[in-house]
Known about the structure:
The chain is an alpha/beta fold. It has helices at about 15-25, 50-60, 80-85, 95-105, 155-165, 180-185, and strands at about 1-5, 10, 35-40, 65-70, 110-115, 115-125, 135-140, 165-175, 190-195, 205-210.
Amino acid sequence: MFINELNENYHSHHGALQEANHVFIKNGLNLINDYEINILELGFGTGLNVLVTINEYLKTDKNHVIHYFTLEKYPINESEIENLAYFELFDNTELKNIYQKIHHSEWEKPVEIIPGFHLHKIQCDFFDLKDIDLPKINLVYYDCFGARVQPDLWEKPLFEMVSDKMNINGLLTTYSSKGSVRRILQELNFKVEKKQGPPGKREMINAIKG
Length: 210
């Protein structure tokens, strides 16, 4: 799928699913043990990261609550939602209805997608984050388009805004492993760890806020 405003494509279905599971579930959600998990995602895109998070949540005993806040400047349209049909990549037949509910839930309003999982979609520029009232975040999915397309999203000002929204010991996880990103996070008092990347990428980053 092509994003005219950015002259960029979203990833292929299967590649995107593998990456989302590796970066944001295996090296993100599954490392958080808090009862109440406040997730901040930059950005919503195709909704795949929400779907893989709910898929993982459905596998658990659901003894925790997730509040999922996701920012997006360029929401996809109805025909794109239908064409993507990401639920077809999962074995769980529940996900077809959940996928529809994710995309048809109102923007700017918290919606309980399934019991215990609350989604709040916010249409805005990422740099509006500083003005958005959020609970303290303990997990960040940093899934912005790459630095080739939007270099300003991988520079200190935005990371500083994200850090300000996070709890101490909160986790930021991203597919990027750029040296400049690691250095910025270290300057912001994150403990940065390079981890094995998803298929096709050698490394990725986990960063714990100090």
